[in-house]
């Protein structure tokens, strides 16, 4: 299998690293080689966070070059626009329909982004999902937004839902096990949202 490149981007506190870890675990369960890298930035203060996951029969490097990303997963619309250059021709951009105003904008240091919705709409291969709405209204837990996004992502990977569920069970074990059922529900709803 050729190497698949997935970039997950957003801001600190959105569960991006956990989502990337679950993707990497899923690929490993499926018997593929996996490499992962991450950049936390000012994650604690709502700054940009990105994690790159590459999987396939043989993966040389964890870094995804510009224009080679098969799946861009953005937890925030602004981060989707900032990272659209990563997408390969024919790539898919799964974008959470959410805009978190950057601290530099809310503090008056910088102007707000102009035409954000139009710029998001111009990203090729766009799959827009309102993960926060699904998490709050259907799951009843806003903190499961990342698993809604993970479910949407799963629909564009070569892995079966059972592999994803097994990875979630391994990652959410011990004290986190009490969160497993609600996260599985969020995942399934996110998957259904893009599969129709």
Which features characterize this protein?
196 residues; alpha/beta; Pyruvate-ferredoxin Oxidoreductase, domain 3; 6 strands; globular
Task: Outline the structure in words.
By secondary structure, this protein is of the alpha/beta class. Helix content is 39%, strand content 22%. It contains eight helices and six strands. It has helices spanning 16-29, 77-83, 103-106, 116-121, 131-139, 145-154, 161-171, 180-195; strands at residues 4-11, 33-39, 48-56, 69-74, 87-96, 126-129. It has a six-stranded mixed β-sheet, with helices on both faces. β4, α2 and β5 (87-96) form a beta-alpha-beta unit. It is globular and about 45 Å long.
- The proportion of residues forming helix, as a percent range, comes to 25-40%
The CATH top-level class label: Alpha Beta
Strand order in the sheet with the most strands: 2-3-1-4-5-6
For the biggest sheet, the summary is: 6 strands, mixed
Total domain units? 1
Q: What is the approximate shape?
A: globular
Secondary structural class? alpha/beta
**Could you state the oligomeric state of the chains shown?**
single chain
CATH homologous superfamily name? Pyruvate-ferredoxin oxidoreductase, PFOR, domain III
Strand content: 15-25%
How far the N terminus sits from the C terminus, by CA atoms, comes to 27 Å
N-to-C order of helices and strands: EHEEEHEHHEHHHH
Low-confidence stretches: none
């Amino acid at each position: 299998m050729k190497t698949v490149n997935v970039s997950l981007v957003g801001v600190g506190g959105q569960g991006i690293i956990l989502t990337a870890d679950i993707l990497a675990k899923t690929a490993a369960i499926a018997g593929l080689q996996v490499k992962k890298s991450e950049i936390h930035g000012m994650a604690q203060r709502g700054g940009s966070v990105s994690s790159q996951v590459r999987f396939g029969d043989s993966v040389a490097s964890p870094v995804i070059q510009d224009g080679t990303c098969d799946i861009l997963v953005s937890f925030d619309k602004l981060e989707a626009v900032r990272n659209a250059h990563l997408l390969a021709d024919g790539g898919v951009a799964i974008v959470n329909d959410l805009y978190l105003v950057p601290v530099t904008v809310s503090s008056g240091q910088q102007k707000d982004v102009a035409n954000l919705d139009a710029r998001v709409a111009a990203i090729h291969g766009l799959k827009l999902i309102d993960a926060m709405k699904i998490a709050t209204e259907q799951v009843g837990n806003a903190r499961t937004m990342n698993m809604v996004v993970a479910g949407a992502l799963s629909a564009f990977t070569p892995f079966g839902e059972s592999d994803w569920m097994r990875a979630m069970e391994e990652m959410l074990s011990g004290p986190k096990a009490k969160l497993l059922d609600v996260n599985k529900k969020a995942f399934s709803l996110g998957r259904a949202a893009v599969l129709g």
